[in-house]
Amino acid sequence: MTVLIRPETPADVDAIHALTVAxxxxxxxxxxxxxxxxxxxxxxxxxxxxxxxxxxxxVVGHVAISPVSLSDGSEGWFGLGPVSVLPERQGEGLGSxxxxxxxxxxxxxxxxxxxVLGNPDYYGRFGFRAxxxxxxxxxxxxxxxxxxxxxxxxxxxVSYHEAFNASA
Length: 168
Fold this sequence. Notes:
By secondary structure, the chain is α+β, with helices and mostly antiparallel strands. It has a domain at about 5-110 and about 160-165: Aminopeptidase, CATH 3.40.630.30. The chain is built from four helices and nine strands; from the N terminus they run E-H-H-E-E-E-E-H-E-H-E-E-E. The strands form two sheets. The chain has a six-stranded mixed sheet, with helices on both faces. Helix 3 (about 95-110) links the parallel strand 5 and strand 6. The longest helix is centred in the middle third of the chain and has 15 residues, at about 95-110. It is globular, with a radius of gyration of 15 Å. The chain starts with a strand and ends in a 9-residue tail after the last strand.
Protein backbone atom coordinates (compact mmCIF):
# COMPACT_ATOMS: atom_id res chain seq x y z
CA MET A 1 0.00 0.00 0.00
CA THR A 2 1.21 3.51 -0.76
CA VAL A 3 1.90 5.79 2.19
CA LEU A 4 0.03 9.09 1.85
CA ILE A 5 1.45 12.30 3.36
CA ARG A 6 -1.46 14.52 4.41
CA PRO A 7 -2.44 17.16 6.98
CA GLU A 8 -3.44 15.82 10.38
CA THR A 9 -7.12 15.62 11.25
CA PRO A 10 -8.72 15.62 14.71
CA ALA A 11 -9.06 11.84 14.39
CA ASP A 12 -5.23 11.55 14.20
CA VAL A 13 -4.40 13.28 17.50
CA ASP A 14 -4.27 10.18 19.72
CA ALA A 15 -2.34 8.23 17.09
CA ILE A 16 0.21 11.07 16.76
CA HIS A 17 0.67 11.12 20.53
CA ALA A 18 1.24 7.34 20.72
CA LEU A 19 3.47 7.37 17.63
CA THR A 20 5.65 10.11 19.10
CA VAL A 21 6.05 8.23 22.40
CA ALA A 22 7.12 5.10 20.50
CA UNK A 23 9.44 6.97 18.12
CA UNK A 24 11.40 8.65 20.92
CA UNK A 25 11.28 5.82 23.49
CA UNK A 26 14.88 4.70 22.85
CA UNK A 27 16.24 7.92 21.36
CA UNK A 28 19.35 9.55 22.75
CA UNK A 29 19.59 13.28 23.47
CA UNK A 30 15.92 13.75 24.30
CA UNK A 31 13.88 14.62 27.35
CA UNK A 32 11.12 12.27 26.10
CA UNK A 33 8.60 15.12 26.07
CA UNK A 34 8.07 15.37 22.30
CA UNK A 35 4.49 14.05 22.54
CA UNK A 36 3.68 16.77 25.09
CA UNK A 37 5.28 19.40 22.86
CA UNK A 38 3.05 18.37 19.94
CA UNK A 39 -0.03 18.44 22.19
CA UNK A 40 0.87 21.84 23.67
CA UNK A 41 1.58 23.36 20.23
CA UNK A 42 -1.77 22.07 18.97
CA UNK A 43 -3.63 23.33 22.06
CA UNK A 44 -1.99 26.76 21.73
CA UNK A 45 -2.89 27.02 18.05
CA UNK A 46 0.80 27.09 17.14
CA UNK A 47 0.98 24.18 14.69
CA UNK A 48 1.58 25.99 11.41
CA UNK A 49 1.78 22.62 9.72
CA UNK A 50 1.18 19.12 11.03
CA UNK A 51 1.57 16.33 8.50
CA UNK A 52 1.10 12.60 8.97
CA UNK A 53 2.32 9.63 6.98
CA UNK A 54 -0.81 7.50 6.60
CA UNK A 55 -0.43 3.85 5.61
CA UNK A 56 -3.99 2.71 5.06
CA UNK A 57 -5.64 3.37 8.38
CA UNK A 58 -2.44 3.65 10.42
CA VAL A 59 -0.48 6.83 11.17
CA VAL A 60 3.16 5.74 10.81
CA GLY A 61 4.88 9.15 10.81
CA HIS A 62 4.39 12.78 11.80
CA VAL A 63 6.11 16.16 11.42
CA ALA A 64 5.27 19.41 13.18
CA ILE A 65 6.13 22.94 12.04
CA SER A 66 5.63 25.92 14.36
CA PRO A 67 6.58 29.60 14.32
CA VAL A 68 9.75 30.76 16.05
CA SER A 69 10.67 34.26 17.23
CA LEU A 70 13.89 36.00 16.20
CA SER A 71 15.46 38.64 18.45
CA ASP A 72 15.99 41.03 15.53
CA GLY A 73 12.26 41.04 14.71
CA SER A 74 12.57 39.07 11.47
CA GLU A 75 9.28 37.43 10.56
CA GLY A 76 8.34 34.32 8.65
CA TRP A 77 10.70 31.89 10.39
CA PHE A 78 9.57 28.46 11.57
CA GLY A 79 10.88 25.51 13.53
CA LEU A 80 10.86 21.96 12.20
CA GLY A 81 10.03 19.25 14.71
CA PRO A 82 9.28 17.07 16.39
CA VAL A 83 9.58 14.51 13.57
CA SER A 84 8.41 10.99 14.45
CA VAL A 85 8.29 7.65 12.64
CA LEU A 86 7.20 4.36 14.17
CA PRO A 87 10.34 2.42 15.13
CA GLU A 88 9.42 -0.55 12.93
CA ARG A 89 9.02 1.81 9.93
CA GLN A 90 12.22 3.81 10.42
CA GLY A 91 14.72 3.50 7.59
CA GLU A 92 12.02 3.48 4.90
CA GLY A 93 12.41 7.15 4.03
CA LEU A 94 9.14 8.26 5.69
CA GLY A 95 10.85 10.89 7.84
CA SER A 96 12.60 12.28 4.77
CA UNK A 97 9.32 12.44 2.83
CA UNK A 98 7.59 14.23 5.73
CA UNK A 99 10.42 16.76 6.09
CA UNK A 100 10.66 17.48 2.36
CA UNK A 101 6.91 17.96 2.03
CA UNK A 102 6.82 20.22 5.11
CA UNK A 103 9.69 22.37 3.78
CA UNK A 104 8.06 22.59 0.36
CA UNK A 105 4.82 23.73 2.01
CA UNK A 106 6.68 26.42 3.97
CA UNK A 107 8.34 27.69 0.81
CA UNK A 108 4.94 27.71 -0.90
CA UNK A 109 3.51 29.80 1.94
CA UNK A 110 6.25 32.40 1.49
CA UNK A 111 8.16 31.58 4.68
CA UNK A 112 11.51 33.30 5.15
CA UNK A 113 13.23 30.22 6.53
CA UNK A 114 13.27 27.29 8.90
CA UNK A 115 15.39 26.13 11.84
CA VAL A 116 15.89 22.72 13.38
CA LEU A 117 17.61 21.34 16.46
CA GLY A 118 19.07 17.95 15.68
CA ASN A 119 21.76 15.79 14.14
CA PRO A 120 23.69 17.80 11.52
CA ASP A 121 24.43 14.70 9.44
CA TYR A 122 20.72 13.91 9.14
CA TYR A 123 19.30 17.40 8.67
CA GLY A 124 22.15 18.57 6.43
CA ARG A 125 20.72 16.52 3.56
CA PHE A 126 17.63 18.74 3.60
CA GLY A 127 19.65 21.94 3.25
CA PHE A 128 20.05 22.82 6.94
CA ARG A 129 23.40 24.23 8.06
CA ALA A 130 24.73 25.67 11.29
CA UNK A 131 25.22 29.40 10.84
CA UNK A 132 26.91 31.59 13.47
CA UNK A 133 24.46 34.42 12.71
CA UNK A 134 21.44 32.49 13.99
CA UNK A 135 21.74 30.96 17.45
CA UNK A 136 19.68 29.07 19.98
CA UNK A 137 21.08 29.98 23.40
CA UNK A 138 22.53 27.19 25.56
CA UNK A 139 22.66 24.70 22.68
CA UNK A 140 25.83 23.42 20.98
CA UNK A 141 25.91 25.51 17.79
CA UNK A 142 26.53 22.58 15.43
CA UNK A 143 23.17 21.06 16.41
CA UNK A 144 21.14 24.21 15.73
CA UNK A 145 20.75 24.60 11.99
CA UNK A 146 18.88 26.87 9.61
CA UNK A 147 18.02 27.43 6.01
CA UNK A 148 16.74 30.60 4.43
CA UNK A 149 14.25 30.40 1.59
CA UNK A 150 15.69 33.03 -0.73
CA UNK A 151 16.89 35.78 1.57
CA UNK A 152 19.79 36.05 3.98
CA UNK A 153 19.95 34.34 7.35
CA UNK A 154 19.36 37.04 9.97
CA UNK A 155 21.75 37.76 12.80
CA UNK A 156 19.59 36.89 15.80
CA UNK A 157 18.80 34.59 18.69
CA VAL A 158 15.90 32.21 18.20
CA SER A 159 13.13 31.44 20.69
CA TYR A 160 10.73 28.54 20.36
CA HIS A 161 7.14 28.75 21.64
CA GLU A 162 6.69 28.00 25.34
CA ALA A 163 5.02 24.72 24.31
CA PHE A 164 8.55 23.34 23.89
CA ASN A 165 8.80 23.42 27.70
CA ALA A 166 5.79 21.09 28.08
CA SER A 167 6.51 18.10 30.27
CA ALA A 168 3.07 16.53 30.65
